[in-house]
Amino acid sequence: MASKLELKDLIRPDNFIDGKWVAAASGKRFGVTNPATGEVIADVADSGEADARAATDAAARAFPAWRDALPKERAAVLHRWHDLMMENADALGRLISLEQGKPFAEGRGEVLYGASYVKWFADEATRIYGDIIPQQQRGKRMTAVKEPVGIVAAITPWNFPLAMIARKIAPALAAGCTVVGKPAEDTPLTALALVLLAHEAGVPPGVLNLIAASRENAVSAVASWLHDSRVRKITFTGSTPVGKYLARESAETLKKLSLELGGNAPFIVFDDADLDAAVTGLLVSKFRNGGQTCVCPNRVYVQSGVYEKFGDMLAKRVAALKVAPATDPDAQIGPMINARAIDKIVRHVDDAVAQGARVLAGGKRLTALGPNYYAPTVLADATSAMQLSCEETFGPVVPLFRFDDEAEALRAANDTPFGLASYFYSQDIRRIDRVSRGLEAGIVGINEGALASEAAPFGGVKESGYGREGSKYGLDDYLSIKYLCQGGLE
C-alpha cells in the first residue's frame, strides 16, 4: 500500500479484528451520514457481542508478544504511525469534515493534534522507569517496576473522531497493552482509517482491534468488554451518565478506569481584564468545532463594570463568523452533528429568551444551509434559572451572566457537579493566584483560551471523571506497579 492515500482509500466500512477487515458476525450494517447534507457516506459493520468477543480474543492472543517487545521496538512502530498520519493529513482532515462536519482547516488541525499524541507517547515508551527502594533490611533488595495493565477497551465520542482515539491508543500501545475499541456511531470512519494506517505502520495483528456499532447495538457490544475479566482497563470519553454506567458495570471485574466526562466550563472576565484578549480567547475556546467540545465555555461570567462593553465587542465578532459546509474554504463553523444536537440548542435558546435573555447575535437556525445549522449566538442577561446554566448546550451559544465581585464569581463558577475546564481573564497577579486555587477544575486557562497539549495532563474532577490523558501522567493510567522483594542476599 502506498503511504499517501486519497480520501476514498481511507474509507473502510468493516471491522478490523486480528489484522483483518471483517464484516459484523450478524451481517448487519448501518449508515454513516454527512451532517451537512444528510447523505449516507458508507454503510459500516453493525457489531454486537460476538464481534466484541472476537476482538478481545485477538487482543488476548497478541498481548504476550507485544508486552515483551522492547520499548524501542514499540516506539518505532508508533513513530511510523505518526509519520503516516502526517503524510495523509489532508485526506484524513477531509474525512473528518465529511462525517463530522467541522471545517477542513479544523479537521486537518485535529489530525496534527492527534498525531502529536502518537509522537509524544512513542517517545515516552522508552521512558517507563521503575525505582530501587532504599534498603530497609540487610539481605533484602526491594524494587518497583511498571508493567502494562493488559487489554484496554477504548470508547470514544464523535466530536473529535481522530484525536480522542489516538490519545487513548497511543499510550496503551506505548505501555505494551493491546487494544479493543469502539468509536461513536456518528463518526466511525475516521477511527477505522486511523487503524488502517496503524496496520500499515506495522502494528502486529491482534494488538489493535476496532469495531463499529449502531446506537442500538453499542450497549451489547460494550457489555462484552465490561464483563470479560481479560479486559483490564476501560478508557472512555463521553457523557457523565454513560461514564457512571461503565463504572458500575465494570465493577464486577474491578477494571482500571479512565473517564473523561461532561463539562460545564465557566469563563470569567474580571473588570481589570484585557477585553480584546478576553474576546479573542473566548472565540477560540467557545467556537472550536462549533461549540461541540467538552472544554468549551458554557457559562460566561462578566463583571458589572465591563459587562455591556464586553457583550458589544463579543457580539460584533460572533456575528462576523462564517457558517458554511466544510467544503467552503472560508467556513469557520459547520453543521451540528445531528438533529438531536440542533433540538437541544433550540430548546436552550428558547428557554433563555422566554426567561428574559436578550439576543445580541444569532439566536436562530440557518435552514437555508441545511437541517443541522445554527447561527453563532450571544445571549445577555442569562441567569442560573435557565436550562443552559446547568446543562451543556454543546453548540455555538454564549450566555453572558453578570457578577459584582470575585467571591460571587467563584461561587457561581463552582456551582456545578462538573469540573473539567475553567477559564478566567485578569491582569491582577494576586487575583490570578487566588482564582487559580479557588476554581474546582482539572484544567484552568489563565488569560488563555487554547489549553490542549500532548505534554499537559488532560482530565477533570468531580463528575467530570478521573484519570489523565497526555503528558507523562497519561502513561501511568496504562501501567500497573509491581513491587519485587528479593531476600537471601547475604
Classification by helices and strands: alpha/beta
Fraction in helix: 25-40%
Report on the biggest sheet. Answer: 7 strands, mixed
User: What Rg do the Cα atoms give?
Assistant: 23 Å
CATH superfamily of the largest domain: Aldehyde Dehydrogenase, Chain A, domain 1
* Quaternary structure: single chain
Contiguous low-pLDDT stretches (5 residues minimum) are none
Shape: globular
Keywords: Oxidoreductase
Protein name: Succinate-semialdehyde dehydrogenase (NAD(P)(+))
Family: Belongs to the aldehyde dehydrogenase family.
Pfam families: Aldedh
Folded structure, characterized:
With 490 residues, this protein is α/β, with parallel strands linked by helices. It folds into 2 domains: 7-261 and 464-483, Aldehyde Dehydrogenase, Chain A, domain 1, CATH 3.40.605.10; 265-453, Aldehyde Dehydrogenase, Chain A, domain 2 (3-Layer(aba) Sandwich), CATH 3.40.309.10. The protein has helices at residues 7-10, 49-68, 71-87, 89-100, 104-124, 163-175, 188-201, 215-227, 240-250, 275-287, 307-319, 339-354, 406-414, 429-438, 471-476; strands at 15-17, 20-22, 29-33, 40-45, 131-133, 141-148, 151-155, 178-182, 208-210, 231-237, 256-260, 265-269, 297-303, 358-361, 377-380, 397-403, 418-419, 421-425, 443-446, 461-462, 465-466, 479-486. The strands form 6 sheets. The protein has a 7-stranded mixed beta sheet, sandwiched between helices. Helix 7 links the parallel strand 8 and strand 9. Helix 5 (104-124) runs parallel beside helix 6.
Secondary structure topology:
Elements: H1 7-10, E1 15-17, E2 20-22, E3 29-33, E4 40-45, H2 49-68, H3 71-87, H4 89-100, H5 104-124, E5 131-133, E6 141-148, E7 151-155, H6 163-175, E8 178-182, H7 188-201, E9 208-210, H8 215-227, E10 231-237, H9 240-250, E11 256-260, E12 265-269, H10 275-287, E13 297-303, H11 307-319, H12 339-354, E14 358-361, E15 377-380, E16 397-403, H13 406-414, E17 418-419, E18 421-425, H14 429-438, E19 443-446, E20 461-462, E21 465-466, H15 471-476, E22 479-486
Helix pairs in contact: 2-8, 3-5, 3-6, 3-7, 4-5, 4-7, 5-6, 10-11
